[in-house]
Amino acid sequence: MIKVGIVGGTGYTGVELLRILSTHPEVELTAITSRKEDGLPVADMYPSLRGKVGIAFSSPDKAKLTDCDVVFFATPHGVAMAQAPELLAAGVKVIDLAADFRLQDVAQFEKWYGIPHTCQDVLKEAVYGLPELNRDAIKTARVIGNPGCYPTTMQLGFAPLLKAGVIDAGSLIADCKSGVSGAGRKAEIGILFSEASDTFKAYGVSGHRHTPETTEQLQRLTAEPVELLFTPHLVPMIRGMHSTLYAKLKTDISNEALQALFEDAYKDEEFVDVMPFGSHPETRSTRASNMLRLALHRPGNGKTLVILVVQDNLVKGASGQAVQCMNLMFGLAENTGLQHVPVMP
Amino acid sequence: MIKVGIVGGTGYTGVELLRILSTHPEVELTAITSRKEDGLPVADMYPSLRGKVGIAFSSPDKAKLTDCDVVFFATPHGVAMAQAPELLAAGVKVIDLAADFRLQDVAQFEKWYGIPHTCQDVLKEAVYGLPELNRDAIKTARVIGNPGCYPTTMQLGFAPLLKAGVIDAGSLIADCKSGVSGAGRKAEIGILFSEASDTFKAYGVSGHRHTPETTEQLQRLTAEPVELLFTPHLVPMIRGMHSTLYAKLKTDISNEALQALFEDAYKDEEFVDVMPFGSHPETRSTRASNMLRLALHRPGNGKTLVILVVQDNLVKGASGQAVQCMNLMFGLAENTGLQHVPVMP
Amino acid sequence: MIKVGIVGGTGYTGVELLRILSTHPEVELTAITSRKEDGLPVADMYPSLRGKVGIAFSSPDKAKLTDCDVVFFATPHGVAMAQAPELLAAGVKVIDLAADFRLQDVAQFEKWYGIPHTCQDVLKEAVYGLPELNRDAIKTARVIGNPGCYPTTMQLGFAPLLKAGVIDAGSLIADCKSGVSGAGRKAEIGILFSEASDTFKAYGVSGHRHTPETTEQLQRLTAEPVELLFTPHLVPMIRGMHSTLYAKLKTDISNEALQALFEDAYKDEEFVDVMPFGSHPETRSTRASNMLRLALHRPGNGKTLVILVVQDNLVKGASGQAVQCMNLMFGLAENTGLQHVPVMP
Amino acid sequence: MIKVGIVGGTGYTGVELLRILSTHPEVELTAITSRKEDGLPVADMYPSLRGKVGIAFSSPDKAKLTDCDVVFFATPHGVAMAQAPELLAAGVKVIDLAADFRLQDVAQFEKWYGIPHTCQDVLKEAVYGLPELNRDAIKTARVIGNPGCYPTTMQLGFAPLLKAGVIDAGSLIADCKSGVSGAGRKAEIGILFSEASDTFKAYGVSGHRHTPETTEQLQRLTAEPVELLFTPHLVPMIRGMHSTLYAKLKTDISNEALQALFEDAYKDEEFVDVMPFGSHPETRSTRASNMLRLALHRPGNGKTLVILVVQDNLVKGASGQAVQCMNLMFGLAENTGLQHVPVMP
């Protein structure tokens, strides 16, 4: 059994880790920290876990995280980099669901997150945790920077095209839409029910942290300079993410060949579902599961390819992907504990 | 492996059966019928099941239901009673999620459902499928009338009190609220998104089919005549049911004793969670799981006890309960394939 | 033109006052205070008011409230009582949308609101602002305690029955459901979109402030001791309130006579709509309007009468009702500025 | 008073016309037709209109539409073209909210709507009813083709840029999102609450009717060939439309100059609100009003301009715009009866 610790288990990615790990057959949940909730049984905060999770939150000083085999950070940016060195020194693997170990470009990190990066040694060995594009490195990693939710959809949607060199890397557009849980479990006016339901809006249009993360990763797939325009929107739904990707084709290529490109790229991937050409995937078809689904469209048979990508932002976009990485790091079957059937309706 | 057939798999209780059964370790999904969708792979209608359910719908005449060990009817009222005799003769067990085998009082059935009961022989041996109140009979049953969603909450909420004789059976009030999926997957104006969201209403207040069903069952628990006033409402949410039950205490009894009554009644029940006195259970704490949670209140320490009961109407209120019955009928552990952790948020 | 001031205009009842008053033909919006937002144009916080409301928030010390004819308090409990004496001394009328002037029983006020009542002289002359039951007193009032949202529905639903003496005043039950905007515009976890959507729960079941307020008012209508059991619930919708009221009939009375009782009681009331016997009013049929609709049911033709009452909690349940009072206090037609057609769908 | 008839008043654009017209000071509602609902008081179908609209539906043969001054068609495509000639001959003006008189290119109409255009004479004189771009022609029109909801946002968002010649007309992208009411009030599975809430999807990505309509109109603004890629999505909200428009700048132009372009274009428009550069308009800021709001963004100060446009799809996107046209056609102030303050929250 893998002994697992969670730092910061009171937010949505934390409770989603608990939901997944509580039925993972190879995991023993050892410690979960919260400064504020020390001593509170986890199931008192989250009644959905009554009878499923027996442990209590403990304050960081009491939790014996160094006895764990792996520690997940479901914390604000900056926490993992402060604690990782000690854990690594004790032989504990680290999976950070925040941004501390996502961006190798430290200047970009500091620009977008507004804090200095205090742990650049560890950053150098950190592995970007997107298994479909980075599986081998994840298997041997000690530190994982788990991808952002939006970046996961953008990368898996553009990757086969960039690798094959069939699109113009310099004019990518990603018009993305996320459920409100992506904003976290924070007491903020803007995400109140009465503010965020029965309405729709864009945010961060002039610039968003997920642009440099995605660009850095996409650039690894092509020699051409990548230019990405990313527009996030807030959808009045709890979970779910839908990315509508636009790419200019630069070669003469048939729809069949494009479809084959994606089917080949993901033919061995259990968590990426390439739907028939012209499908319209719905976010709910992935709800509460680790599936990502995508489909291609070519309106008017023109030069622009549209790729529709959906996932559950809290699972494949966060906690499920983190567990997928953990499985790889510990030599388990990649789908262990991740075979939930999406909840529909 | 239990060979399972489903009649009428295109509605919400049908697709929920598929979600649950597709990961049930002792079940082989053998046949699923739909007159209209003959030949269509199930996963084409429900993309959430892509990669999880491989079979296609077949028309009733082609489906070899008599080769199954058990057949679930997720159909409109009246279908199961037409097909049950042939299946039973072939040694197939029958679990009906509609009302054909719920009411032993045929006159009540015919009054409320508006069709003649054509299968009264089978009805006589049919067992009401509420395991917590009827477990032994279910174990040996050949035919199950699976309880309605509202009746499940009302019975499990009132039962310990009626059995103990501490409330006035003649003045029960149940003010109940259901998510919209309870109305089924039918093309009707009233349950369109634009009609049923951002609004709230009662329906069927002057009379509803679930009153006679619940009364008949509650009457088995007490010699006093049961009088139940049941008011259903429609909530703008997909899944979930919340019943607010009012009962007049007729004896002098402490809150501690009342709480103990419930804790004793359900101490061995995995799917009934008695929360601390004064709790406010939320429907989402049961979402996509077979859990039912309840809590007691006694406002102003007066003579009226309020019992709050929540469940997922499609799981404990329908398909999960049906699988729970199947497990009992086939000698499996009652929780086999039913250990989903509720999805929250 | 009536010069109007608003204290605390950043919450939902404040912005709803602004929506209504900005098109009220007899009103000039003079001042709106907010300590935190001093100098901010109102329309910058509420873009829905761009081009409709030109003034800016000003801090309480700068706002010349004593120059107004009337001041509305859309503030937390306790604010109005601190400022009312000075305004009244200056000849300004006061309408408080919070609880400071609702309860004549000071002990009850202090018990339920947890603050001392510091303004009992003013309280004595304060008038409870429910026009349908208290019109004459409102016309000559200097201070109005505007009713709570739930109490409005309970009073207008029970009043004709209590006045006529046909129900048992000692066993009233009110099972009430409110949209989330009723909880206000506060940064609290519990009313986040991801916490309050796609779920349903009760709250405050063991005791709620609106019970003593409603009981005090209902008691004015009957010599029998009133006992009220009130259970509030939170509905995943923005606006709207639905109260399901249960009353025991103590006399032999026909449904026609009961219906006539209500039609007579409200025949001259523009804002109370008595629907046909057996109707199921929906909250959305009152959305964004000052209408309250109700309908009677008598399940099984028994001894319990069910009254269904709906309103928009922010309009008839708060700001609309306050403007209705203002119209009466200034001798205007009662419906001035309040003739919005409900927004449907 | 203008005598108004409505054909097909049972859908959402019909009931929205009723909401608006019932308080329009210059309108007398004369007739409203529905084959199915002949004799039914309008307020029985739409309780929101109780006390506001007194007339009943009448079957088309009984309704004296030729006595009206103007008739609105809130019907499926094809109805208006069948009835317009007779009405015009009788001197009645016609405003069609469907597509019969939107597209001058008959071949395109027949391709996308799948029916022959049987009324091409009338089509020739029909005027496209977008007042901000076509006001003078509307004033003297006898027949109006009221714009589609999506096309309204796309045209008002792209128009100032195309007129000024600062963007590449050949690579326009419009990623648009609509509330579910845009799909109409039809009994269809896909728009049930349980299918369309808590999820998000695109539809019609390979081709949609609003592309040729929008292209035809935009082409009138520029000599360059217009190429538009339009991707519609369904948002789990009732009302509201958000269009995210992408345009490639082809000249060196400052953000200030771009903003000025829009402010100049719409400086006299009461229903178009140009928000400050970099704003994020929300659909709810226009809810139940005839306002359209837009804002400009230039991510990374690059070559692509992003224009965010919001409106209420049923008002500025349909019935409000139709009334705006009517006001122009009858010489009234353009905003008569259209001054609703958006409902927020």
TrEMBL record, chains A, B, C, D:
Keywords: Amino-acid biosynthesis, Arginine biosynthesis, Cytoplasm, NADP, Oxidoreductase. Residues 3-141 form the Semialdehyde dehydrogenase NAD-binding domain. GO terms for molecular function: N-acetyl-gamma-glutamyl-phosphate reductase activity; NAD binding; NADP+ binding. Pfam families: Semialdhyde_dh, Semialdhyde_dhC_1. GO terms for biological process: L-arginine biosynthetic process. The active site is at 149. The keyword Cytoplasm applies. Catalyzes the NADPH-dependent reduction of N-acetyl-5-glutamyl phosphate to yield N-acetyl-L-glutamate 5-semialdehyde. This is N-acetyl-gamma-glutamyl-phosphate reductase. It comes from Undibacterium rugosum.
